[in-house]
Amino acid sequence: MIKAKKNLIGVMQGRLLPKYQGRYQAHPVGYWQEEFLLAAELNLDCIEFILDYNDALMNPLLLADGIDEILELAEKTKVRVKTVCADYFMEAPLHHKNDEIAFKSKNILEKLLWNGQRLGLSDIVIPCVDQSSLVDSTMAKRFVVKLTPLIEIAEKVGVNIALETDLAPQPFAELLSRIDSKLVTVNYDTGNSASLGYDPIEELACYGYRITDIHIKDRILGDGSVLLGSGDTQFKKLFDALGPLNYQGPIIIQAFRDEQGVEIFKRQLSWLNKEFGYYLNMNYEK
Known about the structure:
Blueprint: E1 9-12, H1 34-41, E2 46-50, H2 64-77, E3 83-85, H3 88-91, H4 99-119, E4 123-128, H5 137-157, E5 160-165, H6 169-177, E6 184-189, H7 190-196, H8 200-207, E7 211-216, E8 218-219, E9 225-226, H9 235-242, E10 251-253, H10 262-280
Parallel strand pairs: 1-2, 1-10, 2-3, 3-4, 4-5, 5-6, 6-7, 7-10
Antiparallel strand pairs: 8-9
Helix pairs in contact: 4-5, 6-8
């Protein structure tokens, strides 16, 4: 029998297409439209769009006619865009030491929030990892200061600002406690947490109720992405812990990719459906 879906199951943009300019994760300029039909064929609900630092001004997320085109494709294929992974802010963080760069980034996020209202977004993911990390307490304080004026806009448009960080569970919870808004939430990345050696039980105990977007990937402790099921991500432990939280947000598959994308994605989608379809309320045969 076919079980009805509860969570939106989606794909990170570009995972079903050949790599753009050889990059592992990027908005595929010029052929991004093709992914909607592929996602529909795989019975996926949504695509999490990427806003790159490179070619940002060519991204449909920042263009009025681009938003129109996304909405038309979503209507045609029934594949929605509900979330955005704003990788732009890894290269140009809101808390950048250069005030000019930080100011430009503020304007980009502001525009993305307003356009996100038109698009019907639920979440904009802000990655605070690698060069945009908040591990340094001074940078964390600067980030809160720079983010605060934008929270009012997020509340007006009803779009979550979901933070993805490399902070340990307790420091991340402490950061969240300093931000007085229910619309500043958490993006939980299964692979990144596994790579950092964090325990999903401890993580969810600290901030599970604030998770509004989940990235599914598998990584090896201290290393990179691998095929789902072959790394150190503790999927069952995670999904067992998610159950009591009644998580109903999107599940975005950001799994390992090769040069072409779609076939290796299908293999991993099949694995995820077989192993954890019940947890995720994916379509499955019983």
